[in-house]
Structures are given as C-alpha cells and as structure tokens.
Amino acid sequence: MAEFADRMKSFTDHLRTSITMRNESLANVRTATQELRGRARTFINEVAEETRDRAEELRATLAAQREERCEQVAELRKTNQETLAQSRADLNEMLSETRRARDETANEMRDAFQHARNELALDLREAAVAWHTFASGLQQPKRPSNGKHASHAAATKPAEPVVSAAPKRAKPSVHATKKTVQSSTRAHKGK
Question: Is the pTM higher than 0.70?
C-alpha cells in the first residue's frame, strides 16, 4: 500500500508541476500575444497613416492635374472650333467661286450657242433666198423673140444672177428660223 501512496504522491507532484508549467506557458503565450498584438497595431497604424498621406498627395495631384486637363480640353475645343469655322468659311468661299465660275461658263456657252444659232438661222435664210431665186429662175425661163439664133444665144449666155434684197443680219426669232428651215426643206424635196 505504501507503494500505491508513493505513486499517487508522485502523480500529484507531477500533475502540480505540469499545471505550474502550463500556467507559466499560458502566461508566456499571453505576454507574447499582447506584444504581437501591440506590434501589429503599431504596424497597422503606421500603414494607415502612410496610406492617408499618400491619399492626400494623390488627391492634390489629381486636383492639380484636373485643372490642367480642363485647361487643355478648353484650349483644344477652342482650337477645333476656330479650325472648323475657318474650314467652313473656306469651303463656302470655294463653293461661291465654283458657283460663280459655273454661272459664267454657262452664260458664255449660252451666248455662244445663241450666236451660233443666229448665224445658222441667217445662213439658212440666205440659202433659202438663194434657192428661191434659183428655183424661180428655172420655173419662168425667158423666151427670145428671134427664133433659133436667139434661143442659141440665150442657151450659150450664162444666166445672170438675180440680186434680191437679202434681209439684214439681225437676231431672228425662233418662229422665223423654223419657217426658213421648213421652206428650205420643201425646196430640197422639190429638187
């Protein structure tokens, strides 16, 4: 029985020693935990302070850059508006010059066409008068009164041109030009 008591005493001593060691270990862990927590809190506070400082610097930089960017955008907008206005003015001037040149060319072509039409109408009228003169000379031949000799002389003598009063060169109307062309066409068909 004494052996059992010794073992129990040894067990309780060992248990007491273990509890004491455990308490010391727990105290050491608590101390280490508090130190670690303190260091972590200090580190986090330092990081937070540094982040706040950097955020302030970034905010100030962005504000300064924003003003600069706004000025650059305003200047670019103004330059673009001036360039567009100048381009619009140049384009309008070029269109006006082109329209003016086109109108002048069209007027010149119209005048040239009118002149050519008038010349053609006058030439056709003169040709019609000449044709009518020629045709009237063929329809009414002159008959000589002296028989054979006179008819031979008349045949060998060239016909004298009949001078007619040709109209002066004036701008003919479209209606007169049509009449001249129609009479010239009839005269050619009769030939």
Answer: no
The count of structural domains within the chain is 1
In a domain, 92, yes or no: yes
Tens of pLDDT, residue by residue over 36-88, are 999 999 999 999 999 999 999 998 888 888 888 888 999 999 999 999 999 99
Q: Could you tell me if residue 157 is inside a domain?
A: no
Residue whose tokens read 């063929």: 138
Residue-number span of the structural domain to which 42 is assigned: 2-126+170-190
Number of residues assigned to the chain:
191
**b/e string for 135-164 if b means 16 or more Cβ within 10 A?**
eeeeeeeeeeeeeeeeeeeeeeeeeeeeee
pLDDT tens per residue across span 82-102: 999 999 999 999 999 999 999
How far apart CA 37 and CA 40 sit, in angstroms, is: 5
